[in-house]
Structure formats: C-alpha cells, structure tokens
Amino acid sequence: MTIKERAQRAKQSSILLAAANTELKNKALRAIAEALRGKTDTIIAANNRDLELAQAENLAPPLLKRLAFDRSKISGAIAGIESLLTLPDPVGETLCATELDQGLELYKVSCPIGVIGVIFESRPDALVQISCLCLKSGNSALLKGGSEALHTNRMLADIIADATRQNGIPEGWIQLLETRADVGEMLALDQSIDLIIPRGSNEFVQYIMNNSSIPVLGHADGICHVYIDDEADSAMAVRVTVDSKTQYVAVCNAAETLLIHNSIAPQVLPPLAAALAERGVELRGCSRTAAIIKVKPATEKDWKTEYLDAILSIRIVDTMDEAIDHINTCGSGHTDAIITTNTGHARRFMSLVDSGNVFWNCSTRFSDGFRYGLGAEVGISTNKIHARGPVGLEGLLIYKWKLIGSGQTVAEYGSTKKFTHRRLNNSCPV
Fold first, then answer.
1. Is the model more confident about 412 or about 43?
2. What are the helix and strand counts (H, E) for the chain?
3. Rounded to an integer, what distance in angstroms lies between the CA atom of residue 219 and that of residue 197?
C-alpha cells in the first residue's frame, strides 16, 4: 500500500472515528493497556534488537537513553493510558452558545481535527502516547518514528492496531511510516492530512514548514532556562536547578542554561556546582562564573544550544531584565523558570518571558502533558496559534459551528426581524 493510499484510508477512518462515542474509545484504550501489559516481553525483545543495532552504529548516549523501552517505561506508558481514561471525552463539548433569534440557536462545538501526521524522535513511548491521544480525541494518526526504533515501533503499532480493531475502532486509523521517503510523500498529501506535528530541531521544523502546504504545529528546540533571582531561597535554588538539569537530561524540558543574579552567585554557585558534579554534569560558564567556580569557558554558541546531555551553561547577570532579555533572545520559547521569594519579581518575569511555559519556584521538568493532567502529549508547541505548550487532548481538537433553526431565512433579517445575539448556557442538542 502506498503512502497516499494509507493516508486516504486514515482519512476515511477519521470520519467514522470522529463519531465514536466515549464508551467505545475508552474500551479500546483499555484494550491497548492490557495488550501492552501482556506483551511486555515481546516488546522488550524488539527494543533490545534496536538497541543492539544502535550501539553497533555508535548512536550517541542521550539517544540510546531515549531509545530504551524497558519494563519501567512500558509501565509508565500504561499509566499514561490509565490517566487518559479518567479524562472526560473532549469531543462534542459546547464551547459557547448564542441565540441569534428566538428559535435560531448557534453552537460552537469541539470536534476532532481529522488526520494528524506526527514525526517524532527515537522514543518508543512517544508512539504510545501520541496514538492514544489521537484515539481519545477522535483523530486518525500517521506516525513516523526514528529509524533507530524501527522494530520497537512496528511491534507497538501492530499491538495498538490489533487491540483497537478487535474493539470496534475503524481499521486503518493508525498508520506507521518508516522511511525518510515516506515523510517526503506525506508532506504532499494536503487532501488527506489535516495537521503535521514535527518533533525535533528548529531546522527540522522549518524544513517541514517550508516543504508542505499542510498546517504545521511546530515543536522546536528545548533551550530551557532557570533564573536564580537576587531574592531567591538558596537551598530551593540549588534543589530546583539540579532537578531541572539532571532528573532526565535527554529531554526537551531539561534546563540547558542557568542565569543567576550577581549578588547571590557567590552564595549559590559553589554548593550548586558540587551537587551537579556529583551527578556528572559538565559546567560551562561566562568569565564571571569562572571567577567563582571551576567551569569550561562558554561560547556564544552555548547560549543557543540544546545539549540533551549532562551539560549546563551558566551566565551571571546584573538584573532580572537582563535575564529576561537573554531568555527571549537565546531561548526557544519552550520552558523557563524563575526562583525567587519576591512576588513582584515573579510576576514581572512571568509576564515578560515569551515562552509557552513559565514557572515560579519549580523545576522545568514539570512542563509535560502527563504532569499537567492533559493525558500525556503529542509534543510541546512553541507556536502562538491553536495550541501552545504541552499539546494534549485539547490541542488535537478544533471546533465547528452548529446552527439550529426553525425555518428562518436571511431575507427576513434587516426588514421584519432583528438579531438578539443573546448568550445561552445550553449544550448543543445535536
């Protein structure tokens, strides 16, 4: 079957899936969770094959860490599905209602987007998250994972397709693409695919945008910052920074740059450096940082680099506004945090930092669809339209306008009739 035929099949399935009721979709999600639990050993065997091939090809350690899909990660994927089951069905929700005139009522109602193409990195758990979010939101999915996860992704896609087919979901709603050539073909299928979500570097996202007329929800680099204010609690600053950097270094919401106010730097940097050294983090810093702790010299490139590794760049600033300017200039609009006891400083930082996620006194690692209660995520968007930040169920929906009348015609208005435009609290009856 060609890529065009797969996309057309997904489109046909999406029409039926959009009308699937909550009970049917939840039943299929439970079946996926049970199938993953029951076939854990088979999944791990497929993943081990991918890991062996990746190691033979000298895949970078951070990518190997992402590629691994062990029992713990499988359990985490199942927990994500179980969390998704507890969420209300987002499809068919009345977003607003307006009486245009007596007996003429307008409803804005949420509905699926249709067919979503997602190109994602070498994380097999991403395939589970994305497909289940698409199912719950009533969308078909064309999925292209990293080639290094080929055997794991094949296994997972087959398990999910079988489990859902056996539980009444239209066949063909999930399609797995495997090659770069497949992606090239997908970009031309604007008649069948409604949205593309690329997960990767800025350059990759720009390539997708420049080579397709399909709308793109961009997930750019994760150049995330922690700013330690002059009125920060020192112990909290160390704890939050360490977690932001080291809880899991190979992910887009890990901190890559620390900005710290000059007045608190001598107090915080030594214990912070010691804590990070214990966790094997390499430190790169400006000349002012080097005067306080041992670091490698940071270059201009460091301030705009997503390491995805145990590396942290550090810059000392004289004011919070200098930190904000640095973030808005060098950051990627992903996730940035301030550590401070001053509410006014926090308010200013959170208002002026132009990012999809802005935090006060907590780790950047909280920037995640599952942790937000969104039922995992298909990605984190740095766009400013449709969806921003972690894209969960709501980000996979659009809406339609439903107008319910009783024989009205436009010709009547402006002469014998007038619009009332009165807000209603009603839910759409159809």
1. 43
2. 14, 17
3. 7
